[in-house]
Amino acid sequence: MSPTAGPDGLPPLRDIIERHGLNAKKSLGQNFLLDLNLTRKIARLSGNLDHRTIVEIGPGPGGLTRALLMEGAKRVIAVERDARCLPALEEIAAHYPGRLAVHPGDALEADWPALIAGSEPVTIAANLPYGIASLLLVRWLETEPWPPWFDRMVLMFQREVADRIVAAPRTKAYGRLSVLAQWRTRAKVVMSLPPEAFTPAPKVASAVVEFTPIPMPEPQCRVSTLARVTASAFGQRRKMLRSSLKQLTPMPELLLREAGIAPERRAEELTVSEFATLASIVERGDQASA
């Protein structure tokens, strides 16, 4: 082992970044985590990694990738859009033969069932690029069929997004993302990171959120219907539901009465369960009129 090598026998990340000219690109939402102690802590938040496949999005120079492999991940499937990072990731793949598969391309266009074929169980663990973090999360939460192809997600977001995910009713942060995340998963913030933990330092703090899928969310409804209901309700969140839900149905009072919800209430006052109840009633109406 080189005297300057890290505990895994690979060069320090700063050396790799300098050698490959991997300055973080704002256009790609890149903020690198270079502290191996931090990345190993995040890896351990993913649980016991033995016999487990990890899907990682936007590994960059491979800081979290190395931590996941050091902590015992059987296999890491890394999806990286930035071609500049691929040589650095290939160095890690060579150091851990057969344990790292690097897929160049955009995570928003990935065929997840094909990428993870034959890999169970699967956890998603990633320092998500800020620009696509919420969009990726929503796509994973809207996965069909449910339960999904992953059994846990451990994801880093801007602190503001993390707060929206776990927000309770009657709070400013509570919204569509809160309802979707909390209906289909048990979501909780498990780690906070200050801006100076990253290179370059972003202007905001970050947080790691753990998601554990709920096999049979209750009340039952289609996720697409829940999306319609929340879009209508939160689209005019300051209005009473009897007004905001007119985008959804011409007679929202009837829908609300059947759900046992006062029409004077506003979207931010409803629980996740109440939103799912509304969605299930909308579905029955759709089926009756079909």
Quick recap of the structure?
By secondary structure, this protein is an alpha/beta fold.
Structure, explained:
It contains twelve helices and nine strands. With 290 residues, it is α/β, with parallel strands linked by helices. The chain folds into two domains: 13-213, 3-Layer(aba) Sandwich (Rossmann fold), CATH 3.40.50.150; 223-289, rRNA adenine dimethylase, C-terminal domain (Helicase, Ruva Protein, domain 3, Orthogonal Bundle). The strands form two sheets. A seven-stranded mixed β-sheet has the order 4-3-2-5-6-9-7, sandwiched between helices. The longest helix has 18 residues, at 272-289. The termini are far apart. The model has no long low-confidence stretch (mean pLDDT 93).
